[in-house]
Specification:
It is built from 9 helices and no strands. By secondary structure, the chain is an all-alpha fold. It has one domain. Helix 4 packs antiparallel against helix 6 and helix 4 packs antiparallel against helix 7.
Length: 204
C-alpha cells in the first residue's frame, strides 16, 4: 500500500468506517445486554445509561451511512444501490454483501420501530428490539467475509476482542439471571421481611 490517493480514498473510507461501525455496534450490543430491566447499570443512573446508549447508537448509524455510501461509490467494486437493502443483489461477493444488507435491514427496522414506539406498543417494539440483536453477529460475519483485512493481523485481534466482549456480556447476564430469584419469590421475600419487621415493632 502506497498511501491514500484520490483513487483509493473511497476504499479506505469504506474499510475504516466499517471497522468503526463494528466497534460501535459491539459497544451498543454489550451495553444493551448488561442493562437490567430498569435500564440501569451498576454505578450509573438511568439517564446516563440511556444517553450513552442513544449516543453510541447514533454514532453507529452515522458511520454506517458513510460506510454504505462509500462502498457503493467505490469504483473498484460493483455493489449497486439495490444491494444495500436487498440480500444477494450484489454481483460482488453477493453472500457476504448480502449479510451486510440483512444487518442494515434489521437496524432500519429497529430505528423505525423506536421512532414509532408510542404507536406500535411496547410489546411489538421489544420483539423487534430483540430481533435486532441478530444484526451484530450478521454484521461481524459480513465484515470478516467481505474484507480480507479482518482475517489476520491487528484487525483480526480487534474482531476477536469484539467477540469476546459480547460473549463476556452474555455470560455475565446469564449468571446474573440465574442468581436472581424469580419475581414471585422476590415479592414473597419482601412481604415476609415486612411482616417480620412489623412483628418486631409490635413486640416493642
Amino acid at each position: 500500500m502506497s498511501g491514500i490517493t484520490s483513487s483509493t480514498a473511497l476504499w479506505y473510507a469504506s474499510r475504516a468506517t466499517g471497522i468503526i461501525c463494528l466497534v460501535l455496534l459491539t459497544a451498543v450490543m454489550v451495553l444493551g445486554i448488561l442493562v437490567n430491566r430498569q435500564g440501569r447499570l451498576p454505578g450509573l443512573p438511568r439517564f446516563a445509561v440511556t444517553g450513552l446508549h442513544r449516543n453510541l447508537s447514533l454514532l453507529a448509524v452515522g458511520f454506517l451511512a458513510v460506510h454504505v455510501a462509500t462502498a457503493v461509490a467505490d469504483p473498484f467494486v460493483t455493489i449497486g444501490l439495490a444491494a444495500v437493502v436487498i440480500p444477494l443483489a450484489s454481483p460482488y461477493r453477493s453472500a457476504w454483501i448480502g449479510l451486510g444488507a440483512v444487518s442494515l435491514d434489521l437496524m432500519i427496522a429497529l430505528i423505525v420501530t423506536s421512532l414509532a414506539r408510542a404507536r406500535i406498543g411496547r410489546r411489538t417494539w421489544r420483539a423487534v428490539h430483540w430481533l435486532a440483536y441478530a444484526s451484530w453477529p450478521v454484521a461481524l460475519a459480513h465484515s470478516i467475509g467481505s474484507s480480507g483485512d479482518l482475517r489476520g493481523g491487528p484487525l483480526l485481534a480487534l474482531a476477536a476482542a469484539c467477540t469476546l466482549a459480547v460473549a463476556g456480556a452474555i455470560g455475565w447476564r446469564v449468571l446474573r439471571t440465574l442468581r436472581t430469584p424469580p419475581r414471585a419469590r422476590r415479592v414473597a421475600a419482601v412481604l415476609s421481611s415486612q411482616a417480620v419487621l412489623s412483628n418486631q415493632a409490635g413486640a416493642r
